[in-house]
């Protein structure tokens, strides 16, 4: 552990270093000054005879991370034999000895430093990449030091004290701010929030008590500061309940009731402390269960707003507030904020599969911003795309929107963009889209495509665009298309359940939907409209793949491959796993895969898998069931898959042994050698 303090005059740093040798804490002191684009470090040593060791370091990497740039990481490089860019000078009592010459391989001195006991995985990767590119040193040659020792603990900041630095059973860092006891909500004026009449809508929530209830809308009209009448919508069914509440300095006690799907009416508790408030919206949070590590294991969150439409900057701010208390914003379930509760529900004015009523209300502000296409209809006419992201901005002094798009072709994976276009919102609620595109082999030539859409559904996070191309004599649509768009790269089961009733109205089966790749790198130039997962330990799959090629030394022999431990319970707790990228020599060409693991014992589990693949241009969607057996053999950490698959002709039993080359609870890289050569190469 190194402690640096600026000396008087701001020209140098006081240096204190703490290290453990044979479980004994020792310290060194010294001074750091700027010198030739780097730092001259003078360390007072006591080894045999007293002398001052001087080492010149040049910083080759310096980066910040974290929501408020609170984490700093850097790489210092120097040479033990000394040269113009890095040298070592020794001062023995009254004389100085210079060591000249070039920096030889093996004489480099490289330090990866961080002001966090548990730096981000991505920062470690970037440090390793710089060392590989700039100094030609393989990161595997480094010695990892233990950052969780008591030596020097009295010198670190409070949030880095050893008592706050816990590693859970999945070898992940438990942040000090994640502990319930350390959550400090920002100051708010919730006591004045209800001084004026309010009609509040639940924009989003996290609440296990509403699981499976298919709630699409909740809004409450306040008669006073302490009572309100609430309207609930479950698809086309509407019911009303009463609400009572009491306010304190930072707590809000709310009780109401809900008509459940089974017909019973039960109480529901919306109480909690006010995490954030801005005058128009507020977030309430309640922790039902505190885990062993001090973090909340059962959280209830409600986001209330008196605005029907919540703009993206406000949603971003809400995401950041939840991230501060270690709540994953992607767990939020967004509701429709625009419905009105009518009892009894109106009878639809159209026959089944005929022209549906357009969505209302629709404004340009509701359409602006970044959208990701999550699915469309697997039918003709169709432009087969693998991923698409669009950004719509209002054109000044007009009622049109400027459209910028990036699209990845399914045939060759080529990314097209940025492309341009316009979107016009008509008075009858239709969208007229006009986009331009060009061909690389015909420079300067641009062609265009025109689309028409009817907005079937629209809220803060989702949109369904529909169009019927051809109808039968009785008005039933016999050729149509649908496009499902969401605001972020994260798609949840709740997003699907919200749109299914509207797809049913136009006779579209969910099995006919064709799903897009939401994690494609095509379109990253368009900034995402939402901040998603905490990035303390996450790593993009592209960086993981780069680690295997750019940082680690190549392992070309089968017996050289070593796996890392991936606990089955950890795999289960991580939830749903999506296939990001692949390289295989299978007969099937897999282009989408999603699965989830359910543990049976500590060494066995069941994997339920959905796979989209093609064989000889024929596309198939398969549901597969695997049994997973964990085993450790020699130094290899291995996992064995046993697959049991029923087919019309025969029953197959396939066993595949694979290893995790990289794993945390967000990213995994799996390797399997199906056959190796006689010389041991695969």
From TrEMBL:
Coiled coil: none
GO molecular function: retinoid binding; retinol transmembrane transporter activity
InterPro entries in UniProt: Calycin, Retinol-bd/Purpurin
Superkingdom as given in the UniProt entry: Eukaryota
This protein's name: MAM domain-containing protein
């Amino acid at each position: 552990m190194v402690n640096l303090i600026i000396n008087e005059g701001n020209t140098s740093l006081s240096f204190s270093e703490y290290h453990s040798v044979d479980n004994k804490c020792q310290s060194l002191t010294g001074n750091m000054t700027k010198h030739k684009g780097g730092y001259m470090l003078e360390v007072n040593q006591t080894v045999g005879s007293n002398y001052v060791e001087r080492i010149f370091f040049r910083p080759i990497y310096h980066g910040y991370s974290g929501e408020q740039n609170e984490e700093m990481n850097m790489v210092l490089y120097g040479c033990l034999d000394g040269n113009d860019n890095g040298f070592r000078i020794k001062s023995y009592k009254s004389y100085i000895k210079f060591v000249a010459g070039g920096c030889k391989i093996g004489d480099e001195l490289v330090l990866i430093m961080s002001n966090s006991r548990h730096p981000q995985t991505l920062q470690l990767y970037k440090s390793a990449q710089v060392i590989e590119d700039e100094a030609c040193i393989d990161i595997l040659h480094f010695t990892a030091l233990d950052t969780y020792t008591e030596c020097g603990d009295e010198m670190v900041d409070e949030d880095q004290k050893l008592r706050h630095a816990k590693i859970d059973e999945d070898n992940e860092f438990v942040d000090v701010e994640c502990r319930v006891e350390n959550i400090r909500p920002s100051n708010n004026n919730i006591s004045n929030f209800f001084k004026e009449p309010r009609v509040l809508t639940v924009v989003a929530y996290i609440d296990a008590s509403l699981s499976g209830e298919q709630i699409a809308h909740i809004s409450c009209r306040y008669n006073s500061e302490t009572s309100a009448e609430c309207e609930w919508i479950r698809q086309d069914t509407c019911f009303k309940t009463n609400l009572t509440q009491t306010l304190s300095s930072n707590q809000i006690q709310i009780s109401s009731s809900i008509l459940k799907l089974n017909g019973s009416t039960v109480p529901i508790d919306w109480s909690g402390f006010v995490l954030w408030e801005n005058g128009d919206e507020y977030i309430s949070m309640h922790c039902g269960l505190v885990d062993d590590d001090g973090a909340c294991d059962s959280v209830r969150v409600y986001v209330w707003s008196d605005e029907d439409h919540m703009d993206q900057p406000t949603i971003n701010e809400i995401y950041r507030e939840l991230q501060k208390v270690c709540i994953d914003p992607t767990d939020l379930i967004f509701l429709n904020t625009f419905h009105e509760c009518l009892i009894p529900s109106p009878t639809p004015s159209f026959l089944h599969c005929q022209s549906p009523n357009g969505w209302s209300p629709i404004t340009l502000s509701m359409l602006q911003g970044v959208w990701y296409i999550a699915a469309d209809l697997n039918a003709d006419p169709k432009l087969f795309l693998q991923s698409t992201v669009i950004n719509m901005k209002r054109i000044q002094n007009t009622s049109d929107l400027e459209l910028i798009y990036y699209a990845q072709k399914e045939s060759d994976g080529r990314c097209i963009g940025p492309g341009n276009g316009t979107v016009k919102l008509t008075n009858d609620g239709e969208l007229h889209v006009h986009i331009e595109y060009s061909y690389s082999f015909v420079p300067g030539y641009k062609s265009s495509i025109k689309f028409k859409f009817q907005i079937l559904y629209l809220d803060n996070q989702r949109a369904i665009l529909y169009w019927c191309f051809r109808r039968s004599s009785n008005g039933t649509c016999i050729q149509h298309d649908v496009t499902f768009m969401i605001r972020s790269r994260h798609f949840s089961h709740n997003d699907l359940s919200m749109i299914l009733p509207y797809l049913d109205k136009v006779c579209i089966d969910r099995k006919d939907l064709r799903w897009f790749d939401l994690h494609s790198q095509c379109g990253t130039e368009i900034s995402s409209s939402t901040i998603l997962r905490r990035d303390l330990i996450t790593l993009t799959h592209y960086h993981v793949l780069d680690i295997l090629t750019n940082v680690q030394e190549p392992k070309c022999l089968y017996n050289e491959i070593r796996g890392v431990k991936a606990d089955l319970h950890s795999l289960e707790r991580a939830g749903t796993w999506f296939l990001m990228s692949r390289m295989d020599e299978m007969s099937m060409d897999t282009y989408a895969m999603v699965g989830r693991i359910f543990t049976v014992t500590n060494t066995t589990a069941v994997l339920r898998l959905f796979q989209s693949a093609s064989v000889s241009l024929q596309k198939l969607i398969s549901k597969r069931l695997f049994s997973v057996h964990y085993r450790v053999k020699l130094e290899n950490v291995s996992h064995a898959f046993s697959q049991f698959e029923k087919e019309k002709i025969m029953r197959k039993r396939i066993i595949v042994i694979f290893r995790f080359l990289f794993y945390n609870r967000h990213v995994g890289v799996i390797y399997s050698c199906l056959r190796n050569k006689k010389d041991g190469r695969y």
